[in-house]
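Fill in residues.
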């Protein structure tokens, strides 16, 4: 029985030493996982913002293309551009330039990462 008490006392001492170590390890793993999750969420948010901006530019390009197409059709039907064609062409060129700048910026930002 005396041997049993010695073994139990030894196990208790070992548990007292090991429990804080285990707790620290679990805390460290939790902190690491939390940091990794926050980083992943930040990366996903940045990608989402970039997709939204690209979608905006794409929609602008489509709108400018439609306006240019309508202006062209009207010019063909009426036989006169009446300033509408120049206005639509300028808008299409500006929109295209904005889109190309966005693509260049997005591409160069992607290369840096």
């Amino acid at each position: 029985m005396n041997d049993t008490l010695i073994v139990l006392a030894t196990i208790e001492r070992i548990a007292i030493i090991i429990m804080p170590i285990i707790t620290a390890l679990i805390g460290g793993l939790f902190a690491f996982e939390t940091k990794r999750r926050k980083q992943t969420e930040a990366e996903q948010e940045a990608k989402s913002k970039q997709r939204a901006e690209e979608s905006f530019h794409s929609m602008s390009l489509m709108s400018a293309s439609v306006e240019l197409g309508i202006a062209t059709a009207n010019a063909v039907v009426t036989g006169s551009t009446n300033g509408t064609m120049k206005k639509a062409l300028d808008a299409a060129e500006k929109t295209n330039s904005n889109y190309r700048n966005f693509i260049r910026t997005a591409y160069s930002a992607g290369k840096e990462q």
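The two ends are 66 Å apart (CA to CA).
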